[in-house]
Amino acid sequence: MLVFNPSIALKYRKFMAKSIVTGVAGFIGSHLVETLLNQGEQAIGIDEFNDYYDPALKRKNISSFESHPNFKLIEADIQSLDWAALLADVEVVYHLAAQAGVRASWGDGFRAYTERNINATQVMLEAAKDAKHLKRFVYASTSSVYGDAETLPTSESICPLPVSPYGITKLAAERLCQLYCKNFNVPFTALRYFSVYGPRQRPDMAFHKFFKWVLADQPIAIYGDGQQTRDFTFVGDVVAANLAAAKVPEAVGEIFNIGGGSRVGLINVIDTIEQIVERPIRKNYLEAAMGDARHTAADVSKARKILGYAPKVSLKEGLQQQWQWIQGL
């Protein structure tokens, strides 16, 4: 863990940013900050740049705005920072930083999940309860909290039953947010993302790997029979949901599903990718992975009603954008 330098908090407090985004150099965080800056807002981004995947890719994610006058970067472990000072004048926190990955959450790596998903969130919430200007604490949750949901599409009222250690830690942090909201009036909103994809997607995620295998003329690895289904959500729609969650008064204390609007089978996705890359794709079927839900589908009626959420990017359009980005890496 990094040792906290109090001058960091003072430096960025003077910056007077309206928003803080944790995990800024990640997939969703970099898109969110880019949008905030395009809207004329000031933002502080926090990222540890750990080695879960190549930090050079994370540096590239923020390269287009790192020198923007309305953006300041703090490179540090969340638990090493003086959050009371950082939150003194901030109105919105978008907490996207997390240890991601379902399959990597088993075994010896689990401690990283408890530290980065649970403990780091608790540290931030402790400071948030005393932050006088904080209007919203937007927590990035996940559809993994549902596990193998009994009802599809799945609404927020369904009892969460995670089937992976990753899902357990994300649900625990979500519950902490609820506790701090109930007991200390921390104005939290949680967004449960369903299978987010698009440009800058992490290299351990399915579509990123699929396109890389296509470029290398290698077969695509499919875990299981390929009949599993997902509710794929384009990253731009997720950004729009975050912005709405930060502004709508009725969102405080609520949890929302954020899905792409349609449930698609993995084999059908590969058919779409074949159309985009204009070549046949070879497939390598492997044993189903532990912790992967068989099917996911989001009931987004609550987000539609309260946040005005409406996914705009179709799967084919989003995959085309991701394919263009992959080719430029």
Your description of this structure?
The protein is of the alpha/beta class. It is 38% helix and 16% strand. It has eleven helices and 13 strands. The chain has helices at 6-13, 27-38, 55-61, 83-86, 110-128, 165-184, 206-215, 235-247, 266-277, 301-307, 315-327, and strands at 19-22, 43-47, 71-75, 92-95, 136-142, 188-193, 196-197, 220-223, 229-231, 233-234, 255-258, 263-265, 283-286. A seven-stranded parallel beta sheet has the order 3-2-1-4-5-6-11, sandwiched between helices. β1 (19-22), α2 (27-38) and β2 (43-47) form a beta-alpha-beta unit. α5 runs parallel beside α6. The chain is globular. The two termini are 31 Å apart. The mean pLDDT is 94.
